[in-house]
Design brief:
The protein is an alpha/beta fold. It is built from 11 helices and 7 strands.
């Protein structure tokens, strides 16, 4: 252990200090130097981000906010929430296949579908079954009727399940990971993605990268990456310039 690390460890409080401000929702996080990170942004990521941010400014998601029973109306909050940024990224990249891991209520998938090409589709995965997801009242029948949004009940962290969907994953040009945030599930997904030989170049979007249990996972990503939290989700939004073929 270096002298700097030892000094930091001695100074680190045993009890988390009281928050210096009050807010509706708060999480503990930590700041890190950028020069010694495992990877830096690529010109491609910078270009995609700038274009997506510009597009996000003009995207209206009031119709999705209207489906929420009470505030906060998350789709309209930008920056701070990631819905408009996701829609901006889809508008910029125009992927034919979008994969979302972590359907939840379906709100993110619906935001992305707004700018999805007519001949493209979003396939979203969750361990929750469709009736549970539909019970939130966010996803309506008409959202599924055209076949451009498909909801699967499957756990992609299971190698056998992941392998079952390998052909689909190979075609994905956009992968949004919004999973358990437990420091385990996301790393498992990244390890499995390394085994895929993609047919198109994928952009991987990671939610919640500033949360405590996600810090190490994001820090250790060795492919070109960009922290876009200032224009995405306040809990952290990261873009990864994922290679078509990675070394497991």
């Amino acid at each position: 252990m270096s002298a700097m690390s030892t000094m930091f460890k001695k100074r680190l409080p045993r009890v988390r200090p009281a928050p210096p401000v009050q807010a509706r929702h708060m999480e503990y996080s930590m700041l890190f130097s950028a020069d010694d990170d495992a990877a830096q942004p690529s010109p491609y990521l910078i270009s995609v981000a700038v274009n997506a941010i510009q597009r996000a400014q003009t995207i209206a998601l009031e119709h999705l906010s209207a489906r929420l029973p009470q505030p906060p109306y998350y789709p309209d909050i930008w920056p701070g929430e990631h819905y408009k940024l996701l829609a901006g990224l889809i508008a910029t990249l125009q992927p034919k296949v979008v994969i979302e891991i972590g359907t939840a209520t379906g709100l993110s998938a619906l935001a992305m579908k707004q700018t999805l090409a007519d001949d493209a589709k979003i396939v979203t995965f969750d361990v929750l079954d469709l009736p549970t997801i539909r019970a939130s009242g966010i996803v309506h029948d008409e959202d599924l009727s055209d076949g451009r949004l498909v909801i699967h009940t499957d756990d992609l962290t299971q190698p056998a399940v992941f392998s079952k969907h390998d052909a689909l994953i190979q075609e994905a040009g956009f992968i949004f990971i919004d999973a358990a945030k437990d420091g385990v599930m996301e790393q498992t997904l990244l390890d499995l993605l390394r085994t895929v030989s993609f047919r198109v170049k994928p952009l991987v979007v990671f939610d919640d990268i500033r949360l405590w249990k996600m810090l190490k996972i994001w820090r250790n990503v060795s492919f070109p990456k960009l922290d876009l939290t200032s224009f995405g989700h306040y809990t952290g939004t990261g873009l990864i310039d994922w290679p078509m073929t990675a070394t497991p």
